């Protein structure tokens, strides 16, 4: 009886997962916002490596966040399309109907998107790079805590990445789906240029390792996809 129950639960999980993936099949989503944040206690450690990145054309753009945000978006977009069957429109597909941020990503609230946009479905992404043990600062205007952060030494940190995905349709401002995925570095990072492999250069990163920013991002994306 116990084996039968377990088998039924596994079957239900499989069917539910299949049904969820089919629900996004061939649906076109327009991005309305991609918010990429690095918490205040970690940002100074990342800023040590600004010299690895080119100057930005927009003075409001951050030299580290810009390339990381750009590459992360296309990584996430590719995974979502392959795993769920959804189609995500180019970020500039809505033209001057949408407002854009310093990184040329759409930056518009869902209520405005419903009035200005032409898509039937919309997607919003919030990504936060933060200290694994510091819950007081998520990069959303809260106060950082130098004493409680995870810096065990001047250049050592143990970060986590959380990705929150919110989906809407053109029927209203309430989300039709909201899920998140979080990954924590398996060991402390000794901050160095290697952390930015694949972002500051064209070197290949190990998608199975959480010892680089892209590797940790990839792990968070996998966690997110498992919940969609």
What descriptive keywords fit this protein?
228 residues, alpha/beta, Maf protein, 5-stranded mixed sheet, two-stranded antiparallel ribbon, 5 helices
Structure write-up:
The structure is a single chain. With 228 residues, the protein is α/β, with parallel strands linked by helices. It has a single domain (24-227), classed as Alpha-Beta Complex (Maf protein). The protein has helices spanning 2-23, 43-47, 65-84, 110-116, 213-227; strands at 28-38, 87-88, 121-131, 156-157, 159-169, 177-184, 189-190. A five-stranded mixed sheet has the order 2-1-3-5-6. Strands 4-7 form a two-stranded antiparallel sheet. The longest helix has 22 residues, at 2-23. The protein is globular. 34% of the residues are buried.
Q: What would CATH call the architecture?
A: Alpha-Beta Complex
Rg result: 19 Å
Look at the helices and sheets and give the structural class.
alpha/beta
Span between termini: 30 Å
DSSP helix count?
5
**Count of extended strands:** 7
Strands ordered across the widest β-sheet: 2-1-3-5-6
CATH class bucket: Alpha Beta
CATH topology: Maf protein
Beta-strand residue fraction: 15-25%
Give the helix proportion (percent range).
25-40%
Mean pLDDT across all amino acids: 86
Tally of domains: 1
Molecular shape: globular
Largest sheet: 5 strands, mixed
Low-confidence segments, ≥5 residues, pLDDT <50? 4-21, 134-152
Order of helices and strands: HEHHEHEEEEEH
């Amino acid at each position: 009886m116990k084996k039968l129950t377990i088998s039924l639960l596994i079957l239900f999980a499989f069917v539910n997962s299949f049904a969820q993936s089919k629900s996004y099949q061939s649906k076109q989503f327009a991005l309305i916002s991609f918010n990429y944040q690095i918490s205040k206690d970690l940002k100074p450690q990342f800023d040590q490596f600004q010299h690895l990145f080119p100057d930005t054309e927009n003075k409001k753009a951050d030299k580290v966040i810009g390339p990381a945000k750009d590459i992360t978006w296309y990584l996430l977009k590719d995974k979502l399309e392959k795993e769920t069957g959804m189609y995500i429109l180019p970020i500039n597909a809505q033209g001057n109907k949408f407002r854009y941020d310093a990184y040329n990503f759409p930056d518009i609230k869902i209520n405005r998107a419903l009035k200005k946009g032409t898509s039937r479905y919309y997607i919003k992404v919030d990504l936060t790079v933060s200290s694994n043990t510091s819950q007081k600062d998520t990069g959303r205007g809260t106060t950082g805590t130098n004493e409680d952060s995870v810096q065990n030494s001047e250049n050592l940190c143990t970060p986590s990445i959380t990705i929150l995905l919110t989906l809407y349709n053109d029927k209203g401002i309430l989300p039709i789906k909201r899920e998140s995925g979080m990954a924590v570095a398996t060991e402390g990072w000794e901050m160095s240029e290697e952390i930015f492999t694949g972002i500051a250069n064209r070197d290949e990163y190990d998608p199975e390792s959480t010892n680089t920013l892209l590797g940790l991002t990839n792990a968070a994306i996998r966690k997110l996809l498992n919940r969609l």
